[in-house]
Amino acid sequence: MTTTYDLPLSELSEYRPALEEPPDLDAFWAAALSEAAAFDLDPVFRPHETLLRTVEVFDTSFTGAHGQRISAWLVLPRQRPEKLPCVVQYLGYNLGRGLPHDVLTWSAFGYAHLVVDTRGQGGKTLPGATADTMPAPPGPHVPGFMTLGILDPAQYFYRRVYVDAVRAVAAARAHPAVDADRMVVAGGSQGGGITLAAAALAPDIAAAMPDVPFLCHFRRGAEIATDGPYLELVTWLAAHRQRSAEAFATLRYFDAAVLAPRASAPALFSVALRDPVCPPSTVFAAFNRYGGPGEIRVWEWNQHEGGQGAQVAEQAAWLAKTLA
């Protein structure tokens, strides 16, 4: 079963659900980032030998949340007469940074490209290189990542992930080939939700490209998604019948639609109208609340794959214009 239109497009374009914002949201994230800042970022860029002729690859690491080292690839065009704008890419659910030849698109367009591992993920299709060291037992959870620590915002999995995302931007800025004033955050699905969080929480972002973003309007996703990780929430809530209010109180801190008004960089979204994983209304809930100038590309007949190469072409043209 797939979601064709959870709402008509005319309603989606005006969809602004009442999303409850925690009164201490800004203080919560200020504390999380301050806690991470106590650890030296210590970005390390080790040259990585490959047979690739047009790029240089660096096996990169930096210190993320709780002092844990996060792995990434930095891919640079070999020919670079000046400092380059940098696309910091966050990954889809349970994907890792993969191998360098898997991630050549943005360097081929002439950008520096940092591909950031998601801690604890990388068990599907593209391997990762970063574990998740839990600061404390997260409590009962459904297999996967959506309910890890769900009863305590300070322990919830995505607190660590969003902090890592902000630190990744700072790490990329530290490389001498990168233009620190032209930092772009981007990603699809889970990476799209992380992109919105980074755009809201990291300073001086130049552009954001959330593609079919996940992690937006959690309750709506749990109510109508028919595939994908929102169903982990459904399974947990079905078992913990009396604790749904506690769970959704935690999720408010991490909802990219709640964080979206705090972003100010120009953004190019995408949405797929037959998406059973990230239903269109969840994407529009974030897009319609986004704090900066935004555009959205609508893929009418696609499911969660969205526009794929056609969307990348849209992103490349939009980014060249936006950064000009």
TrEMBL record:
It is an enzyme of class 3 (hydrolase). It holds the Pfam family AXE1. Its EC number is 3.1.1.41. Residues 4-321 form the Acetyl xylan esterase domain. SUPFAM superfamilies: alpha/beta-Hydrolases. InterPro entries: AB_hydrolase_fold, AXE1_dom, CE7. One of its GO terms (molecular function) is cephalosporin-C deacetylase activity. Keywords: Hydrolase. It comes from the Bacteria. PANTHER family: CEPHALOSPORIN-C DEACETYLASE. This is Cephalosporin-C deacetylase. The lineage of its organism: Bacteria, Bacillati, Actinomycetota, Actinomycetes, Pseudonocardiales.
